[in-house]
Amino acid sequence: MTSIRDQHSYILTNCNGGTVLDLSGTDSYSVIGFQNNNGTNQRWVFERVDNFWFIKSVAFERYLAIEGNIKNGTKVVATTSPFRWDVENSDISGIQGIRILAHGTKFCIDLCWGCSANLTKVQLWEKWAGTMQIWATTNHNIIVNIQNQNTYKCVERVLRLWDSKDGVVLKKMEGYDSDVLAIAVSRDGKLIGSGDKKGNLTAWHGDTGKSLTGAIKGHSHQICSLDFSPDGSVLATGSLDYTTKLWSTKTWQVHGKTIICGGSVSCIRYSPSGELLAIATPSNIEIWDPHTSFSKFKAAINCYSLAWTPDGTRLLSGGTTIREWDTSSWQQVGDPWSGHTSTIFAIAVNSAGTLVASTSHDKHVLLWRLSDRQNIAIFIDSHSLYCVAFSMDSKQIFGGGDDNKMSEWTAPEDAPQEQVPEDTLPEGVSEEQPKTKIFSMASTIHNAYILGHLPTAEELLTQEINVDRNNHNSYANRSLLMARKGDWDNALHDALMSISIQPSLTGYLSQGIALCGNKLFWDAMKAFDLAFMFTDGDSKTIHLLLLVKAITLFNANQHQQAISRVQELAVACPNADILACRVVEAYLHVQLGINALDDACYSDAVDHFTTAINSSVFASKHSIYLEYEIFVVLFGWDLKSLWQTANQKRCHALLQAGRLAEAHKAYRYMIDASDTVCCRDWSIAFEQECRALCTSNGDAALSVKDYDKAIELYSAVIDLDPLSDTIIASRCTAKLGKMLWEDALADAQKVIELSPSSYVGYQLIHASMYGARRYGKAIAAFDTMLSKLDHVPDTHTRELRQQYLTSSEVARAIQEAIHARLENTPHRLLNTITGHLCDQGAQIVAFKTSPEYYELLLSIMKNANADFRMERIEKVVEIYFRSAMLSHRWEENEPSLRHIQGKDVYELDLVGGIMKLQSFCRIACDAGYRWAWVDTCCIDQTNNVEVQKSVNAMFLSGALAKSVWNERGWTVQEFLAPRIVLFYQSDWTLYLNDRSPNHKDSAVIMRELGDATGIDPQALVAFHPGMGGIREKLQWVSRRKTTLQEDIAYSLFGIFGIHLPVIYGEKKQNALGRLLQEIIAQSGDITCLDWVGKSSEFNSCLPASITSYEAPPFAPSSLSEDEMQTLVSSLRDAGAVESASQLYTTLDHLTAPRFSHRRLHLPCIVFAVTEVTPRLGHFIYAIEADGLHDLLITTEDKLIPFSRTMPIRQKFLLVRPWDRNLLEWHSSDISSEENVLVDSDSNSQALQLIVRLRQPFSAFLLAQERGGEYKRIATNYDIIAQVKDIAFVRDVMDIRTLEIL
To answer: What does the pLDDT look like over 180-227, one tens digit per residue?
Structure first.
């Protein structure tokens, strides 16, 4: 069984740091750790249901619950829905208390960090042996009161009357339906009042114990305190509902107006006279007139208990210390009484007014002697105590607490039991004994002067004068009083009367003061001089008299002269009372400050107040109020409040001067340095004005990016109101502008604590983390912000959500862009920063952990615009993953993949090609390229797939160098493909010392490169991969060499934009054949069939070597426009139009060449060979063919001679591969911009075709195979053929598609 009882309320105190479980009063939702203030926000009712508990707040209709799922770190909150808890006694040795666990689990309520700071997070955490999961319980269901010899005690719902002598229960008062929390007994013991948890009031007969009223619904929340007026006619009740009500004990109806208090009422007490009612709340003491319901006094201190002394001259209040208040001035008397270590719940004063007892949560009862405020006894209980009372004879002390029992202690025998009458004076001392040599007056008159009761003093002095007309002292004293009132004429009259009766120090002093008031300064000085004659040479009196003289001048507006006199006096009289000079100077500066403040000279006012505050007056241990009463009597100075006045006025002047931060610092200095309570009303008003001004000026500073000023002003506001999440958010914004990331983060976290449901705190967390480059947490915070925006009730705010994307949405878009970018890049690249070789997976990981990735992700998350998103992503991805390629000539000992894999290339020994590799990587890195590719070491030569991908991707990088490099096959694409190229010499200096960012922009270098490669400089700059200019591109590489014979073909894949498998080990002819076959198949362009040399084993129409393209192709001379028109006209006249049109249609409908599986289907104009005759010379043959002029060919193939008369079985053909470009003719005389047909009608086009077909052309010699297919006979030179007769072209031409092997 646990120590918790059903339907009882408890304060739960953490056993680690003493912090109490507190329900936040700002949102009634957050549950926090807070220092004990005994407030209802810290009280929890435990309700037993079956085998679990509900825990309910006393202050609000809220239940202790959790936010989210049960796990470590889950926040504990208060909700309107009950949550099931289990309660276990502490299992930690030596620690008393309970564990509170989520029902059926091992997760306990845990104080985060286990500290005693306010606003500490309360969370769930898995059960462990830590005291921060153990909560001490304080029961609030016992009330004790003492009347005569009887003790009244309420436990649970029964009120018992005990005999305090023998401990016998005399009566039981039952019938409550709720826990009783407060009782009171009238002075005569005839009435008993009780208040319960539901706010019900019940009245009982003191003698019989019978209920007089039944339960009266008095308050909306529980009644915490009751007290009867001294005459028993009124019962006052105080409640958590912030009200105090006065009930007539005759009618039991509310008597007068309800008193609205500044907080929940913890204690109420009538003064002994019944004229005043003291009310205690957790934030202040309030003194009310119960007859008029007007407030008389208010002090801003924590207070939970009150007690009056029997004579009503003192009120004691208990917070964590006891403070004594003078009820005539409501000023604190002396220092606070220190002794308790926790909240003081009850104070009692014995009937003689000599002893005070106090009890606290610290389990101690302290007994004090009222006369000197000394602690004379300490009683220790085993439980916390909440009530205390004296027996009627003051010999016993009773207390009640958590253990539901009363404890009794005996007061020490030497404790004072009776009070010495206040008006008893030591023997031989006259009541009118003077307290100073300057004046002498009765104590009653003196006190009236001190308290400012001038009419009373005047009446008493007048009575003295009426009794004795020759009392010079009374006249002088009344003159001083008239001067206090500003009645200068009567003051002078009384002073003169005093001097006329008997010259004296007081008489001449009063005369000097009166003359000064009448602006008769010279006469006044003479009067003061005469006063010095009566000092008897007493230096102290002389010193004070000189000060009075200076003050009088000051009051006559001779300010500077007066202060100079005081300062000179302090210097001239080093052995005199310097403190008196400092007191006077400080007071005068305060008065000057007040004058400057009234004149709106705020800076001057600040200077005066600061001078007063910084003087040594207030650092003195002397009580200047008592030490220098002469200034109070003579001038009505308020020395007791001088320090407070100076500080308050300075704060106000600084505010008016616009020096807001200084005003806040001055206010904080005043509050921290004060050992008394500052005026609550003034503090509230000042804080409100200071907050408003600092907030508006802070906002203005923030808008103009004056971050230092904004931070300073917002900090001032936060110091005054630490729970303002909007101001903390504004300061966080200023700190972000100042790039104070960690400070901003602390503010952002505070915003979330104060407003957990708002998105603003997470937005600030994001900005702080982003600025601190903690990108992962920045992204998480932004995602949380978006989730908060999804649930805001405000439509306008919810629309903000449409502007943003989640991190997962953006990450998917970036991943797609990365995939597209890396699809055609080499599998491995060197990281030029780290020197390590990375595959594509490692490259992606490097990107996704880089600042570039996080900044991209966050920038896109904040901008949902689709166009911006894609453009931004593609740009960043392209820049990050771009790479440089080393174009070089292989040398001996080039590093391979196995040499650098898993190593830092910058750390390798400088052997072989390592130096070249390191230099290239450094230069690429300096040029802004994170990735680099080198063909020697970035390819796994044993992996054909990787080799193929690397070959296909080689058109994505950069080029370097010259010389022998220009003979290599791979280097062509390396300087053609990139937009930017830089050439380096062997010592890694820039070629020609050209430091331009791109050597392709250098006309000199491009011209030199064009001469060396045979490539037009314009093509070098403007090259694009593809099928354009096929024959020209093949000629560019016809003289290039590669180490591996297949590479001559592979190196061309990128130039033509072709993707083919890389198959190392295949023959050179096969690799070149696959390339040329793919070119023809994709483009239909047959110009690559125009070559001389040996035929390929792949297909006889293709060359065996790339060198076969070295010679330029045959190009017939072009016709001018006039020549074409002449020839077309001649054909038209000859009636060739119809046959030409038929031929044009036939050729126009021919299909494009097809080339696959090594078989070429080639559309041709065919000419049958009729005779082959060997000629003298090596491999030279004469050829005759139908329709063609005779011609000679040179071939290394051996041809069998034949003729029409000596035919052979094998057929030979001379063919003209069909080129669709012949269908349209462009004049050589017309510029490219005017490249139009000479005659656009179809007949003219057909006739122009006939003309073109008569021109010489490059022919192929084909030999028929047994299967009907053909093979090309390779020749050493171009076969240039020409049609004999135009009639053959027009009427007899053989057109067909041949299959060539």
So the answer is: 888 999 988 889 999 988 889 999 888 888 888 888 998 988 888 999
**pLDDT at position 1035, please?**
82
Count of beta carbons in the 10 Å neighbourhood of residue 169? 11
Q: What is the rounded CA–CA span in Å between residue 814 and residue 805? A: 13
Q: Taking a C-beta distance cutoff of 8 angstroms, is the pair 64, 83 a contact?
A: yes
Is there a contact between 298 and 308 (Cβ–Cβ < 8 Å)?
no
In tens, the pLDDT along 371-411 reads 888 888 888 887 778 889 988 788 889 888 766 677 888 88
Has residue 421 got a pLDDT over 70?
no
**Exposed / middle / buried, residue 94 (Cβ in 10 Å: 0-12, 13-18, 19+):** exposed
How far from the centroid of its chain's Cα atoms is residue 738's Cα?
A: 13
Q: How far is CA 725 from CA 379, 718, 737, 796, in A?
A: 45, 9, 18, 21
Strand order in the sheet with 355-360: 344-349, 355-360, 364-369, 374-380
Beta strands in 900-951 (DSSP E): 931-933
User: Which has the minimum average pLDDT: 39-48, 64-73, 975-984, 1159-1168?
Assistant: 975-984
Return the beta strands (E) in 653-733 as ranges.
none
Contact 175, 159 (CB under 8 A): no
DSSP bridge pairs for 990: 984
Buried b (16+ CB within 10 A) or exposed e, 1013-1039: bebebebbbebebeeeebbbbbbbbbe
Distance CA(643)–CA(583), nearest Å, equals 11
Q: Do 495 and 507 form a contact (C-beta atoms < 8 A)? A: yes
pLDDT over threshold 60, residue 1230: no
Q: What is the DSSP string of 1040-1078?
A: -B-SSTTHHHHTTHHHHT------BTB-HHHHHHHHHHH
Per-residue model confidence as pLDDT tens digits over 257-269:
889 887 788 899 9
* Continuous segment of H or E residues that includes residue 1155: strand 1154-1156
Q: How far apart are CA 704 and CA 697, in angstroms?
A: 11
**Residue, of 11 and 946, whose pLDDT is higher:** 11
Each as own residue / partner, the long-range contacts of residues 1034-1039 (CB below 8 Å, 24 or more positions apart, any chain) are 1034/1088, 1034/1106, 1034/1109, 1035/1109, 1035/1110, 1035/1112, 1036/972, 1037/969, 1037/972, 1037/1106, 1038/1106, 1038/1107, 1038/1108, 1038/1109, 1038/1110, 1039/967, 1039/1107, 1039/1110
Determine if the pTM surpasses 0.90: no
- How far apart are alpha carbons 397 and 408 in whole angstroms? 6
CA distance 872 to 865: 11
HEC string of 793-809 equals CCHHHHHHHHHCCCHHH
For 82-123, the pLDDT digits (tens) are 899 999 998 888 788 899 999 999 999 998 764 556 778 899
Amino acid identity at 763:
Q
**Where would I find the beta strands (DSSP E) of 333-382?**
344-349, 355-360, 364-369, 374-380
Distance in angstroms (rounded) separating the CA atoms of residues 1005 and 134: 83
Query: What is the side-by-side order of every strand in the sheet holding 277-281?
Result: 267-270, 277-281, 284-289, 294-299
β-sheet bridge partners, residue 1184:
1171
